[in-house]
Amino acid sequence: MRVSSSEVAESLKLRGIKPSYQRMKIYEFLLNNRIHPTVDEIFKTLTPEIPTLSKTTIYNTLNLFVEKKLINVIVIDEKQTRYDVEQGLHGHFKCNTCEKIFDIELNQDILNSEKLENFEIDEYHFYFKGNCKKCNNK
Questions:
Q1: Which of 19, 31, 44, 78 is the most exposed place for a label (fewest CB within 10 A)?
Q2: Domain encompassing residue 100
Q3: Which residue did the predictor score with more confidence, 57 or 3?
Q4: pTM, entire model
């Protein structure tokens, strides 16, 4: 389901972010394309529509979104930083062959481990690497 511009603007305002045209387009892209993109992927997709868009603007916008807890940074390998708009409890699987990243549902009980008792969790990262179903069947 595609997200409308008014929904994007409202989401940004709720987080205290001024909804400029470029910020709205970047956030709309993240919401409508759950592909865990890199800055380069966002740049290549949006520059035909916004020729004045720079990678610096994208980096600054994404850093603002991360700061305001609108999106998360994903670093599964040191070669690429990716961005994820999904905020619920989940992990990631990166395919070594096609390099796609998939969301993996996690059981909430993982955070209720006795070993985590009396710990305050600010951030968590769960990821797996291997080959996805499609690449395994080739």
A1: 78
A2: 90-136
A3: 57
A4: 0.87
